[in-house]
Design a protein that fits this description.
By secondary structure, the protein is of the alpha/beta class. Helix content is 42%, strand content 21%.
Amino acid sequence: MSGVYIHIPFCKQACHYCDFHFSTSLKKRDEMVEALAKEIKLRKDEFQNTTVETIYFGGGTPSVLTTKELQYLIDTVYKNYKVSETPEITIEANPDDLSKDRIVELSKSPVNRLSIGIQSFFEDDLRLMNRAHNAKEAKDCLEEATKHFNNISVDLIYGIQNSTNEKWLQNIETALHYNVPHISSYALTVEPKTALASFIKKGIVDDVDDEQAHEQFNILKERLESEGFVNYELSNFGKEGFFSRNNTAYWQGKTYIGIGPSAHSFNGKQRGWNIRNNSKYIKSISEGKLPIEIENLTTTDCYNEYIMTGLRTIWGVSLQKIENDFGLTYKDYILKTAEPLINQDLLYLEAAHIHVTKKGQFLSDGIASELFKVNLS
């Protein structure tokens, strides 16, 4: 199983917390769509012996493209790759792009999953984050989208400055009201060189409160699990049958090709990333050259990555997989380094898999780093 990720590097405006690669100018949009299609063709040999199970449009804001442009890129994948009979085809979309007509249009296209960037249903939160939509648009688009799509994911952000736990619970309840089967939720993080980082440095807004974010994660987990959602990955909650197939493939170490500026790729032995510059990307692709940097991964790199991703999921880390893929030395190493964390009730061992406990879940990335190995020969 493999996936194709297509990065659409355009946004109407810059969210204050975002450090993804995008441009607010759409001047090169037509050239970009052609370049994306050409990269898809240039890289078809990489997936000669595999079936594409997922096509994912991320960004940026993919919903700034027309449905016709999205269709063109999907058709290009189908013409150049072997695609599953039942692929998951996701588009990330902002509420302000999802008018009633647009939703109906998308429902008639091959797109079968919407990932909607709501972030909050409160106007003051949306203004703080500089989102392009308002609360009414958020609710209106969900009201309409749920009539035409059964596979919808909503993004919500917790740990927003001056947001109370009561207000956060109200955000969750509003999302639940629309019966969406998947919710992705992330703590507000302060990335360097973002507007949010600048505002905090200047004292315009408060810094984020990690303790409050932890409390709000626990509120989220308890409330969603009471409604039958499974917290299958740290930031992702889905009803059975609605886990993101695209993201699950990432966490389980499956191969994927990243198309577009700044997009990342992984083939099991190498990681690659495209240049983060729209003009240079378009120029390179037009000349038939892939603007990609490649890193050859060592056994230790692959082991560390498996630990990082595996501990974030309900599937945990398999001791058998570690022995099979990396060797007995790595299995012995993780058992030894995990022991003190098990004693601290941060990890537990069950059926030859290591998992994080409820106490350790919010700290899973830090716990994973404790199990990393450096220069293991």
